[in-house]
Amino acid sequence: MSPLHLCLALSAALFCTGLVAVLIRGNAILVLLGVELMLNAANLNFLAFWRFGPGGGEAGLVFVLFSIAVAAAEAAVGMALVIAVHRHLRSIRIADANRLKG
Amino acid sequence: MLHASHLWLIPALPLLAAAVGAAAPRTARRLPVALALGAIIGSFLLSLAALAGALAAPAAKLTANFTWFWAGSTAVRLGWLLDPLGALMSVLVCGVSVLVFIFSTAYLRDDPRLGRFFTCLSLFVAAMLGLLVANSLLLLLVCWELVGLASYLLIGFWFERPAAAAAAKKAFITTRLGDLGFLLGLLWLFHATGSSLFYDGGAGVLEGGALERLAATTLPGGWTAATGIGLLLFAGAVGKSGQFPLHVWLPDAMEGPTPVSALIHAATMVAAGVFLVARVFPLMAADQGLGGVPVHALTAVAVIGSVTALLGALLAVAQTDIKRVLAYSTVSQLGYMMLAVGVGAWEAAVFHLITHACFKALLFLGSGSVIHAAHHEQDARRLGGLATRMRFTYVTFLLGTGALIGLPLVFSGFWSKEAVLHAAELWPVSHLPFLAGLAGVVLTAFYMTRLVSETFLGRARGDGAAHAHESPRAMTLSLAVLAVASVAAGWIGTPAWPWLQSQLTGAPVAAHGLGEGLGLMILSTVLVGAGIAAGGWMYAHSPRADDRAPDPLARRFPGVFAALVARLWIDEFYAATVGRLLRGAAALAAWLERWVWGGLVSLTGRVAETTGEVNRAIDEDGLNTGFDRASDGLRDAAQRYSRAQTGEVQGYLRAVVVGLAVLALLLVWGGIR
Amino acid sequence: MTAASLLTALVAVPWLGALLLATGGALPARAVRALAALASLSTLVFGALLLARFDPAVPGLFVETRVPWIRSLGIDYHLGLDGMGLLFVLLTGVLGPLALATTLRRAAKVRAAAAWFLLLQGSALGVFVALDFFPWFICWELSLVPAFFLIRGWGGANGGAAAYRFVVFTLAGSAGLLLAFAALYAATGTMNFADLAQLRATGELAGKLGGLGTLAPALAFLGVLVGLGVKAPLFPFHSWMPATYAEAPVGVSMFLTGVMSKMGVYGFFRILWPIFPAELRAHAAPLLVLALAGVLLGALAALRSGSLRRMLAYSSLNHVSYCLLALFAVAGAGRADGVAVESALAGALIQAFNHGLSAAALFFVAGVLEHRSGGTSDLDRFGGVRAAAPRFALLAGVALFSSLGLPGLNGFVGEFLIFRGVFALQPLVAALATVALLVTAIFLLGFWQRVFHGPRSGAVTGTFADLDAAEWRVLGPLVFLMILLGVAPQLLAGLVNPLATAWAATLTLP
């Protein structure tokens, strides 16, 4: 396996872990963690293609920098939401926040 | 001398007085009186000037025509006419008016509405004078209606009295019934000739061309247009001049103040009908009739005139109210005038009109003097014995009576009535009018003798008569002047010197000696003597003892007398026929309004309501049910599907992931790029 | 001011006044009255300005403005005035302010009443100047709304019912009008009166209208006839009238009978006759009978009514029917005696104006009597008014005799000309119609005798004041005009003669 493939495999595993966490876990913070994992898997992909991919230029690297900044903001917003939900419902279980039920 | 173009001044002066009087404040009592007197004297002088102008050229028809307004592209023209007929009548009307005005200042001295009275009188005189100098049938109609209005206002002068108000209305409406004929005649004339001017330099309706056309136009039934128009115009004259069968309003009109009765309902306005027929005489006579015998429009005039002459005299016999006796006498005398016109002697009619105006005004003013002195007692049964208390009034009244019944040779009425009867005698169509006229002579002498005896002779039978005094100077002055006129007015038209006749016709009328008409004169003198003798024997010979004693005539002929007192039930007949017809028609119209038109409306409303109700039922029970069911189903389905919305974010996400996975698999396996 | 802006201002100023009053917030009552009077009097001013431009040599429109308005529908903003329109504008100018003053005199909610009235006045003016069906119909219908609210809100005890009846009747008529013009539009693509008359004159209209169906021409004629007939009113579409005139506030009754009934008469001359001459001619005989029935039954029904205003309402039916009688006689005659035709047509228009004056004056008299007696309209509850209020009696008497057709007053001229024309065209009809003259005299003098003559009785026994200054200001001008126009009818005849001559000329063309 080439280093690119290794990197991609690692990234896919990471993404799946994150996705499962998002879909399965009841705790909102853990769900957020899952989201971070998925973002980082994507970052890993960018880096891998930048390092081992065919094209030139620094686009991959720049995307990763953007992505980290966005992830930080996302984490902050997410945490704020979780705290707001907790204040409101005295719980951070996602299943409790089902007000939009039809 | 007055030019025709200045004739308008004659009616304008009193009209101005009336206008100022109407606008003057009510507190100003003297102003309208002074204005009215000044205006009528001015008009009198102008009329004299006009008469001088007319007599200078009696045959010339001096006119001043002008355009009133335009209807479309045709002018509606009016005009003034100066001829001996109009000018003489103007002088007469102004002269009598001056005297009546003077009389009224004393007669109505205490009336709070004296100013209003003179305003109305001025209006009347203005309209009457306008009627006389009009050269257009339309202008004549305008003035004709205005004298009707003035008459209405003056009959109803004491409008607080229901009888006066009713009499005023009756007079106006009865005359208006005749006026419908007048209007139709005018319309017809207008249509047939395109003009309403009497004389217009050859194009007027009373001049050759138009008359020939009218006489040549025949209608279905064989009548000529001239006859038809003449009869319609005569209908107007019948109403205005109180001819049978429209005479019923004239006696009732005596509800007005006595000077009004003297001026309007004896001397002037009621003679306007005679004047009208005399004015349009060329038209009435245009149709030569059969074989030169005038048997059309003028025949009707003669017949109506003779019937009225006799009927009026008959009805006068049984009246007890002084003024009503005189009123029926007026009806009768107007009948004589119509009779004269009808038999073709319109100048004799005008002659009688002039003398009648003088002596009937005198008689009415004399009765006014009596009524004034006797504290408004006008029932002859409660008068009596006034000959000694009111010597001056008595003498003048006697003079007027002499003129009315036609005492021979001295009195004016003798000569004018002789002229009328002479013409009637020569009428080739029938002798009946002449005989009716002779009968009327007897009756006239009889009822006037009765009236004089009851009023002046015997002894006083009531408080009013017992305390009567001679009337004030202003009243006796008018009586004196009229008494002189009543005697002297006859001298202008005697057979020996027929000045009036020749001036009126514009051609010299040959004086005929007394021989030709002598037989008739002797006959009528005998008849007058018989009438006086009968009246004197019944009434003067043994005067009634008190006001409740039955009439001598009633004792002898109770049935006849009762019929005459009831005025031959003519009023009742009209009430039962025309009145009922009109009321029935009005009730029918009201019924139609209420039930048919109103009912149709209600029915339409019902139909609309019912349709609405049906509509509602269909909507609610039919259409709406279907809609309801459909929407219920929709709501159920929605409820079912909404269960999928659990509100759990992770559940949604799972679905999204599954969906993505499926899409990805499709992408890969489908080979879609 | 240009002619076009004069016409626009004529209609717009009363509307503007209404808008100001309706939206202007709380104004002192005096300001409201002053503003309303100004807006209402503007009609007279503009009418006088237009009169100055009137040219007797021009038989048609002497002022006209026509700009495209709604191009896709072919609708023009088409205003114009000929002698006939000017006649009615002047009538509105005279009666509008007087009727407004009467309405506001003792009204509650002065501001609302004034606003409604000005809306009514402006709409009526719009009807007289609009020459395209679209703006014309807007004004025609718009006049109903204020009339409805005025009758319901300020009228008598049964004002509500009367107002409903009035509106339902006229709306039913308007539906006919609308459908008829929809058909005309579908057939020709225009709703302009002048264009339609032109099409009719060239003979194209019949073919085009016939293309819609064989019955279309007859139905369109019928629709217009009914629409106008309700308003005029033409017998037997008059059932709304007695109750409405009796229940409306006096000032509104004055305006209804004086101006709004003339909208119908105007429509007969402006719309029905030019666009449907052949149909009118074909049906002239039955229509003549209807007009004659209106003349006779109106007079007879008036004879029977014990209530003052109902009597006057029937009298109005009688008088307005004379105008229609003249038109139908002329329309039915085809080529005929030009003098008679001119006379009848000029007479009909003069009669319409004169009836407006005298009927409005008589309704005002009725209003004075009702006010003095505390609201009674029953003829038997009066007596001896002449003794109590002589000046009032004098002016009322002039109005009464004017209505009765006394020569020397205005009412005579129109009636005489109508009779002159109709007699030449239809002698029998004229002769029958004269009977109504007699009946009119009977009921008017009967009214006069019962109410004004005799001893003081009923409502007149107590204090019964003579006219006050405000009442003089209403009745005085009307009576002055009655005498003036009676003596000098040329003032009116001059306006309508060019038209009458031109119409007669088109009739007598081969």
Question: What does this protein structure show overall?
Answer:
The complex is a heterotrimer of chains A (102), B (673) and C (510). With 102 residues, chain A is an all-alpha fold. Chain A has one domain (3-89): Helix Hairpins, CATH 1.10.287.3510. Helices cover 76% and strands 0% of the residues of chain A. Chain A has helices spanning 3-24, 28-52, 59-89. In chain A, helix 1 (3-24) packs antiparallel against helix 2 and helix 2 runs antiparallel to helix 3. The longest helix of chain B is centred in the last third of the chain and has 72 residues, at 570-641. In chain B, strands 1-2 form a two-stranded antiparallel sheet. Chain B has helices at residues 9-23, 30-56, 84-107, 114-133, 137-155, 162-193, 208-216, 225-240, 249-252, 258-267, 272-279, 281-284, 297-317, 322-342, 346-373, 386-389, 391-405, 412-425, 432-456, 463-466, 473-488, 499-505, 514-540, 552-556, 558-565, 570-641, 649-670, and strands spanning 62-71, 74-82. In chain B, helix 5 packs antiparallel against helix 6 (162-193) and helix 11 (272-279) packs antiparallel against helix 15 (346-373). Chain C contains 22 helices and two strands. Chain C has a domain at 283-510. Chain C is globular and about 70 Å long. The longest helix of chain C is centred in the last third of the chain and has 35 residues, at 338-372. Chains in contact: A-B, B-C. At the B-C interface, strand 1, helix 5, helix 6 and helix 26 of B face helix 14, helix 16, helix 18, helix 19 and helix 20 of C.
* Low-confidence runs of at least 5 consecutive residues of chain B: none
Oligomer: heterotrimer
Strand content of chain B: under 5%
The ordered H/E elements of chain A are: HHH
What is the overall silhouette of chain A? elongated
Number of strands of chain A: 0
**Major sheet details of chain B:** 2 strands, antiparallel
N- and C-termini, Cα separation of chain A:
50 Å
Which strand order does the major sheet of chain B show? Answer: 1-2
CATH third-level topology of chain A: Helix Hairpins
Provide the gyration radius of chain A in Å: 17 Å
Number of helices of chain B: 27
